[in-house]
Design goal:
alpha+beta, three-stranded mixed beta sheet, 3 helices, 3 strands
Length: 147
């Protein structure tokens, strides 16, 4: 693959030199051979710079892809935690999963809504904390005697 690029660069440099010579213009006191050498060096330099730029772009894309994958994985984990906490709350005979909103971000669970009594409110914290992957539980439940 590198050989093809070298031949292409050499061909481009030679073509440029022939065009310059064909026009009959003398750019400076350099010989045609020196002009070819200068053109080849310029082409090689440009090729190296292009290769470096492509490598930087590839590294940036790889980093962005990794970050996006981590964000998606974290979101999927948070959804799984939310589902498990909702199931645990629904299984309790005094807690209503319909009256409790479960929000999860990076494993941190927030319980928002109402509980029928203080014991049920505390039990909601215990049930949520028992779910695998939960880091913290922020219990914002209020006691509602009408629940």
């Amino acid at each position: 693959m590198k050989t093809i690029h070298r031949y292409t660069a050499l061909f481009a440099a030679a073509a440029a030199t022939v065009l310059i010579a064909a026009c009959g213009e003398k750019l400076d006191d350099t010989t045609v051979g020196q002009q070819v050498d200068n053109s080849v060096t310029s082409a090689q330099s440009a090729g190296t710079e292009l290769k470096n730029d492509a490598q930087v772009a590839a590294n940036d894309m790889q980093a962005a892809g990794s970050q996006a994958a981590a964000t998606v994985a974290e979101g999927a984990t948070d959804m799984a935690i939310t589902t498990k906490v909702n199931a645990a709350l629904a299984a309790d005979d005094k807690l209503s999963a319909l009256k409790i909103d479960v929000d999860t971000k990076a494993g941190n669970v927030a319980l928002i809504g109402t509980a029928p009594d203080e014991a049920s409110r505390q039990r909601a914290t215990t049930l949520a904390a028992a779910v695998e992957g939960v880091v913290t539980v922020d219990n914002r439940l209020t006691v509602d005697k009408a629940s």
